[in-house]
């Protein structure tokens, strides 16, 4: 399949309109059946299955997960932890040093004074204090922590 715009001119690189529609539908509900997906985007079930498999292989769709309520699973405290190296000449291997810590939900490399920002979920302020101690010990960094008071929305998918 070739990507082309009107008049046979090449389209802007990215997703074809049908792939965008499939991704948007799966983004809204990753548990949609192929039958439901096919009806929503106007393709056969086999064509949708093939496109979804290709989107997964290309890495456009990186996986499917359940969105959990931190409060109900015993992790009501969410915080953002900014990391600044104690030694600016030290190797930039913080993600590898920290990937084994389960409380860290996301790790973002950022521009600015800090090197990384971590999104963490813990059961209590005491749990946060313990996590900060472990992060500082393992990564040899200083931290600045922002505790989340509420989350009006989270994890929204990008508009395609």
From TrEMBL:
Domain HTH asnC-type: 15-76
CDD domains: HTH_ARSR
Keywords, sorted A to Z: DNA-binding, Transcription, Transcription regulation
InterPro entries: ArsR-like_HTH, AsnC-type_HTH_dom, Dimeric_a/b-barrel, Tscrpt_reg_AsnC-like, Tscrpt_reg_AsnC/Lrp_C, Tscrpt_reg_HTH_AsnC-type_CS, WH-like_DNA-bd_sf, WH_DNA-bd_sf
Organism: Prauserella rugosa
Name of protein: Lrp/AsnC family leucine-responsive transcriptional regulator
One BP term from GO: response to amino acid
PANTHER family hit by this protein: HTH-TYPE TRANSCRIPTIONAL REGULATOR LRPC, LEUCINE-RESPONSIVE REGULATORY PROTEIN
One Pfam short name: HTH_24
Listed SMART domains: HTH_ASNC
Cellular compartments per GO CC: cytosol
GO molecular function, one term: sequence-specific DNA binding
């Amino acid at each position: 399949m070739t990507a082309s715009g009107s008049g046979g001119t090449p389209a802007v690189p990215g997703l074809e309109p049908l792939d965008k529609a499939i991704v948007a539908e799966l983004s809204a509900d990753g548990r949609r059946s192929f039958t439901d997906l096919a009806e929503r985007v106007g393709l056969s079930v086999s064509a949708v299955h093939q496109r979804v498999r290709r989107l997964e292989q290309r890495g456009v769709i990186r996986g499917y997960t359940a969105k959990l309520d931190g409060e109900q699973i015993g992790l009501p405290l969410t915080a953002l932890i900014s990391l600044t190296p104690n030694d600016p000449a030290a190797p930039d291997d913080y993600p590898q040093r920290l990937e084994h810590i389960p409380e860290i939900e996301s790790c973002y490399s950022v521009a600015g004074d800090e090197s990384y920002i971590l999104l963490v979920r813990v059961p209590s302020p005491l749990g946060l204090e313990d996590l900060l101690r472990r992060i500082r010990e393992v990564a040899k960094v200083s931290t600045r922590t922002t505790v989340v008071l509420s989350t009006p929305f989270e994890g929204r998918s990008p508009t395609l």
